[in-house]
Design goal:
The protein is mainly beta. 3% of the residues lie in helices and 55% in strands.
Length: 429
């Protein structure tokens, strides 16, 4: 076994379950419909206004009385900069202070279908992307040994069923098959071994399985509540790590190999309400708890590696459980147009002392505006705009070991915002 411990690799691989600063705290994506985006996803477990109810709370599908599908898309523009105030580069390398952009643009699609079976039972299916984001630093920036490019994607296929218990109460359940896919890069310092800089590239994917449960009830003539639980999902990941520009003396230690890991993505519990204040106005609220404490330590194992290949060191993250709170309103302008607005506050799961350049996550605020247009009895279109503003996030991070010539310290602050434009078509057939 090689004496080297490649501490920079787990930091990069960590992004297999951590990415970005644009949407919900941590690396979750709430953008699974445009009708909810317009109210900052307030009331999401109780409103049941279209087929996307199949995802947010299967019990709320009971409000859908005709076959319907929803097809939606979201454009995300993350504008973020990392301002480096101090840097200590590995031996033989340089790094400068100053500002570096790490934002990027992305697209999030979603599809939902609800088919009533009879007066009490509905079936549904949702295809969504509940986790992921792309961030991209300049390849020559001061923190390149801790992270350069991070591209995370997920897909969740979620069939479900609802049962209307009586005129006021419904229950629902579903199962999920979820795939996580990631491509991550960072620089490696080969100066101590007669080389210059190389590039570490990690690609991995895996499937995991879970379930979701829901209940919805009319507690007063004007107020409806919903409770929706989504289980944690353990992803069995398999992938590869590759290195470029490896000098001969450390060719074995930095050799390419396959990788495996297990990562448990968090469970969540949403409590929502919808209140009809008068014929024109609806008030929506939501409180969502997320079990981010599943992200405590990340451990990665080489598979089929060459004898003498360096081991990968586990990393501690110690994330904490968090809450997200949202309030919104819907105004019925006329028989064809609804106007929407909402505010949300999302608490970050990342402790200050564990914040990394790959995930400079902080608490964030969301302002949302939207509109819904009923084209005819079968066709509805929603559009929405969200402005997401995280608090400035300070980072003081040292990664890598002195023994391998990889130690890199970055001190600075991440700041930025995101714009999310959403649109969807809902059609009854």
């Amino acid at each position: 076994m090689s004496p080297f411990q490649l501490r920079s690799l787990p930091a990069a691989l960590a992004l297999l379950c951590a990415a970005g600063t644009a949407h919900a705290a941590g690396f979750a994506l709430l953008e699974q419909n445009a009708s909810g985006a317009g109210v900052a996803f307030a009331g999401k477990a109780a409103i049941g206004e279209d087929a996307s109810a199949a995802w947010f709370n299967p019990a709320s599908m009971s409000r859908i009385k005709e076959r319907q599908f929803v097809l939606g898309a979201h454009y995300v523009d993350l504008n973020a900069d990392f301002n480096t105030s101090s840097v200590t580069s590995p031996p033989g390398r340089t790094g400068s202070t100053g500002s570096t952009s790490f934002g990027d643009v992305g697209y999030i699609p979603n599809f939902h279908l609800v088919v009533p079976y009879n007066d009490q039972i509905n079936f549904g299916v949702s295809v969504t992307a509940p986790f992921g984001l792309k961030t991209d630093y300049d390849p020559n920036w001061a923190g390149r040994f801790q992270g350069v490019t991070s591209d995370i994607k997920s897909i969740n296929i979620n069939p479900s069923m609802s049962y209307q218990w009586n005129k006021d109460w419904s229950v629902g359940a579903g199962i999920s098959a979820q795939k996580l896919d990631a491509k991550l890069t960072s620089k490696v310092n080969f100066a101590p071994f007669g080389g210059s800089e190389g590039l570490t590239s990690i690609e991995g994917d895996g499937w995991g399985y879970g379930f979701n449960l829901g209940v919805m009830g009319q507690i007063t003539p004007n107020t409806r509540v919903g409770l929706a639980y989504r289980s944690s999902i353990e992803e069995d990941l398999e992938g590869n790590v590759t290195f470029s520009n490896v000098p001969g003396p450390v060719a074995t230690a930095f050799s390419n190999s396959e990788l495996t890991s297990k990562i448990r993505l968090p469970a969540s519990l949403a409590i929502s309400s919808v209140t009809q204040l008068n014929p024109k106005w609806q008030l929506l609220t939501d409180a969502t708890w997320t079990e981010w404490s599943t992200i405590q330590q990340l451990d990665f194992q080489r598979k089929n590696a060459a004898a003498g290949a360096a081991a990968l060191t586990p990393q501690d993250y110690e994330w904490k459980n968090t809450w997200r709170f949202a309030v919104g309103g819907i105004y019925k302008y006329n028989d064809h147009i609804n106007l929407k607005g909402g505010l949300a506050y999302d608490i970050s799961p990342v402790p200050d002392e564990r914040r990394t350049v790959r995930l400079p996550d902080e608490d964030r605020y969301t302002l949302a505006l939207g509109s819904q247009y009923l084209i005819d009895k079968k066709t509805t279109v929603d559009v929405a705009f969200q402005y997401v503003k995280p608090k400035s996030a300070s980072v003081n991070r040292t990664e890598g070991s002195v023994a391998t010539g990889q130690q890199n310290t970055i001190v600075g602050e991440a700041d930025g915002h995101a714009y999310v434009l959403s649109a969807q078509l809902a059609y009854k057939f």
